Amino acid sequence: MRILYVCPYPFLPIRGGGTLRSYHLLNQLGRFHEVHLVIPQREVELRRGMEGCAVPQNIAVYSTVDRPSPRSLFDLLPRRMGAALHYRWLRRSWRGPAEATMLRAYHLLGEVLRRTSINVVIFNEIATMQAAPLVARIAPRTCRIVDMHNVNHRLARRMPPGDGAPLRRRRAWEKECQRLLAVEQNLGRSVKAFFACSEDDRRLLESCSGIKGFSIPNGVDTKRFQLARASQRERTQQLLFCGSLTYAPNFEGLSWFAGEVWPTLRKESPGLRLAVVGRCGQSGKIPGLANDDRVRFVGEVADVQPFYREAAVAICPIRAGSGTRLKILEAMSIGTPVVSTRIGAEGIEAGGGEHLLLADEPAEFAAAIKRLLNEPVLFHRLQANARKLVETRYDWDVVGALVDQALSNLLKGSEAVQALQTPLDARARALGAPGSRPQPFALL
Predict the structure, then answer these.
(1) What are 233-258's pLDDT values in tens digits?
(2) How far is Cα 405 from Cα 313, in angstroms, rounded to an integer?
(3) 2-149+186-219+396-431 adopts what CATH topology?
(4) What is the DSSP letter of 8?
(5) Number of C-beta neighbours around residue 386 at 10 A
């Protein structure tokens, strides 16, 4: 197949679960198919690579930074007005706010679709799906898919304002929840199918959108995150929380742990230490941790592996969110047992007591951590079972095979596949002269 992959953000260096998923799915697509990437990052950065990650040479890169959109008559208007009108012209619709991602990428999307017989377009997250009407006009027989990293309306619903929040804020939150639900209910207007991070997400999105979904889980590079067999690691008294505190569910989860769980552990286990790895811009706002000499806020790091190898237990006290937590898969791969809430482990086919320990109440969470620190047999059993699970179910090569199977099932006998048999010059004649549609008011 010939696939056009549209990404709304740079993904190298990898920072966070979204960029990690995007990078590895792109590479997996490149294993099986001809892939064209449109992205707002310089090609030289993607090819050179960062921290051991690079875009393979067999993937064609179209950078909106290297090749910005040409000037048009819309640029003669005030900036915001010109952008808003240009966006609506391209979409042929007055609905919704203007989306800058589409404005920066539309000329490259048009170029790829005209020059190449693309039969699959994958929009990475909802932001890039705004370009779907343009894609439908230029190449109507392409199969359009959106990769949903989260169920956004559920993510928003799980993060309500506090009880003391002003009425205006509560109304704004309710309105945003309804807006996100409406967007996901109308996915079928823009795409034929979607990828979801878990079976639970897939079922929920299918029920509200009415279109076909495929469960494409997050994964882990098990060759890079190799099992660390430190015989006495369970006795190091080191806990690890890995995640950016700029992400609301991470911040809320660590705040809950600091207020409800950490005081008990601190009192009963004087030697216990906690390391927090990830963007820590809000660390000073977490009472009970900010000035604690047993807590180390490490910040962003190029490689999280040394911290997993040092830790006896990885904690995931997440009580909101959607999708799946890559931090749990990484910990499992490297052999660091996990204690998580049920929402934190949501979407991962792991059994409580078999691959990790699950606890939602503060006392249960603290007790689970102490069990792993005091019961070596349990520690090593979870370690072995979790590693086997990620090798067989969540290695990125396994996930890549699922993506390839999903695409084959979706496109079997479809017009998108038949379009590969249509000569390119015939498609060009049907669409009109190159450059005539996406840039109707080009100055040059």
Answers:
(1) 666 789 999 988 888 889 999 999 99
(2) 36
(3) Rossmann fold (3.40.50)
(4) S
(5) 26
